[in-house]
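Subject: sequence -> structure tokens, single chain

Hey, anyone have a minute? Need the predicted structure for the following. Not urgent.
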Amino acid sequence: MKLFKTILALGTAAALLASPLANAKTYRVIFGGYFGPDHPNSLMMKHFKDELEKVSNGQFKVTLKPNNEAGGEEKIMELVKRGTIQIAQVGGLIKNDEPMIAAWEQPFVINSWDHARNVFLSGGMKQFEGKYTENSGARIAGVIVNGFRQISSSFPVTNMEELGKMKMRTPLNEVFVQLFKALGTNPTPLPATELYTALETKVVDGQDNPYSMVKSMGWYEVNKYLLESRHIFSPTFVLVNDKWYQKLDDQAKQWFDTAMNNAVKYNWDISEKDEAETVELFKSHGVTINVPSAEFKAQMVKAAQPAWDWFDKEVPGAKEIRDYCASVDPANK
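Reply:
Had a minute. Here:
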């Protein structure tokens, strides 16, 4: 009897070792981001990890590195292109490998959350990715939310004259320099890591970013006025190293794609909610939020036209992208 139990146990162990689950390949994934731990884009990373690990029965092992843990935006972009990490969240810097993508951040072309969803979630923008994967070695697996950019300042901005007095910090990106030059400000490119001190010491008067970034970086502590200009809707791109992705078997690709698509939808839902909640948070901390009058908004749009001219001259596909965005605007239906 004892011998029988031993043989049975050995047989069971052998069967387990021979089972598909025991022999299943393990995919180890590092997912890098640069947003703070409570930002909707970092929460999207966790949603993706949890679903992918669950649906794959642990075949995927995902390590998350938000909040610059794997390096800043530029570094993780290079890491994912090289395949050192498999996934990264990156902003407009990807235009360095495909200039057309710079035109996705043209001023005053996306007007509402529903409009933004139509632009970025319908699949229509795929035609404007150009040769990004061919040039970079990474593929755009999803477009998530950075959000509507607003202007914060150390003094109230309620008209074009007051806007023109600003020494405006811009990202290290010619797109924003051109826009704020057209709006009459003095654009001053600075990395985000230097911005809190620059605002606190009045090296610059203000900056532009979505509310979620203003909250997560604490800039509202040193800039007590916000102009709800909604001048640009900035996407964030989820990049995947293409060679790594192509090596996944068909089942693994299906798991990966489904988890990514669900995490992207989750991100959009919580991002819109986060914007509304952040407005209330700012008000509770003594921040004054100015919604521009229709006249002021129209003046900003008109003043921004030279930025469109610059896009048309310097960035391929700029007008086609504006036309596409206009074609899916619910307000035009």
